[in-house]
Amino acid sequence: MCATVGTTSVTAVDPLEPLCKVASEFGMWVHVDAAYAGSSCICPEYRKFLNGVEFADSFSFNAHKWLLTSLDCCCLWVKDPNALVKSLSTDPEYLKNEATESKQVVDYKDWQLSLSRRFRALKLWLVLRMYGVDNLRSHIRNDCRLAQLFEELVAKDDRFEVFFPRNFALVCFRILPSAVASMASGHAVENEHGEAWELNDVNKLNAQLLHAINASGRVFMTHTVVGGVYVLRFAVGAILVRERHVIMAWKLVQERANSLLSMSGSNTTHA
């Protein structure tokens, strides 16, 4: 079973402890994928997202995603390395050597399919030595603070909503269906007030908004679709991003949204 801490689309977090307890009843191997968000757990305030990880069998995170390490660098912990060795070890005559047989070294060829591996550990070691834990924590906290700022700006505009709860430095947002209720095509749904709108139109307008933002060349965002809902993804992670850049990005979002909503309103009136 693979549990996730910080899913790619929306940085959702699985409840590790109850999942691990269920898995243990069936003798299942539990792997925790914390590719993006695992780095944040060097900060004490984010370690709550790893509650129950001690019951997992393996855990991995990508230092190249949020820990200032260049591509590629994935860190893997295994509770019982013998499980890998029993499955993957090879022992032909030409690979035998005294250091391995006397257990003086850990022969990582027995932990993987290939016989060799790149020296990724050196890159991470240099990052840890150069920045230190305080600076790495500061980097992550600052990214989360800037994402929180963007989240607050979105919340102040009643045409938009933060569609998924923000856990880390990713904000998932969209133009609200109520802002495009005048558009007329697709599959109708109702909001909590009983007003009708068209889900396909809402998704289409948000996709157009993303294209307009990226076409500006000033900001680059991505999107995801969860439960049929199209949302934009604003991720803070580049080391040179400052508060002024976040404010600029939000103003750009508003400008492009104003243009698109005006056009859609005009088209509906004309029709």
Name the poorly predicted regions.
Answer: 183-196
Order of helices and strands: EHEEHEHHHEEEEHEEH
Oligomer: single chain
The pLDDT mean sits at 89
Please tell me what the overall shape is: elongated
| Radius of gyration using CA atoms only | 24 Å
Count all strands and give the number. 10
* Straight-line N-to-C gap: 53 Å
**Strand coverage percent:** 15-25%
The number of distinct helices, counting runs of at least 4 residues, comes to 7
Main beta-sheet strand count, sense and barrel state = 4 strands, mixed
Please give the share of residues in helix.
Answer: 25-40%
Widest beta sheet: strand line-up: 1-2-3-4
Give the helix/strand class: alpha+beta
Cofactor: pyridoxal 5'-phosphate
Organism: Eucalyptus globulus
GO molecular function, one term: carboxy-lyase activity
Pfam families: Pyridoxal_deC
Features:
271 residues, alpha+beta, 16% strand, elongated
Helix and strand topology:
Elements (H helix, E strand, L loop, with lengths): L1 E3 L11 H10 L5 E3 L24 E5 H4 L7 E5 L3 H7 L9 H4 L18 H37 L3 E3 L7 E6 L12 E3 L5 E3 H17 L6 E5 L2 E7 L7 H28 L1
Parallel strand pairs: 1-2, 2-3
Antiparallel strand pairs: 3-4, 5-6, 6-10, 7-8, 9-10
Quick overview:
It is built from 7 helices and 10 strands. It has helices spanning 16-25, 63-66, 82-88, 98-101, 120-156, 199-215, 243-270; strands at residues 2-4, 31-33, 58-62, 74-78, 160-162, 170-175, 188-190, 196-198, 222-226, 229-235.
Note down, in words, how this protein is organized.
With 271 residues, this protein is α+β, with helices and mostly antiparallel strands. It starts with a strand and ends with a helix. A four-stranded mixed beta sheet has the order 1-2-3-4. The protein has seven helices and ten strands. Helix 5 crosses helix 7 (243-270) and helix 6 (199-215) crosses helix 7.
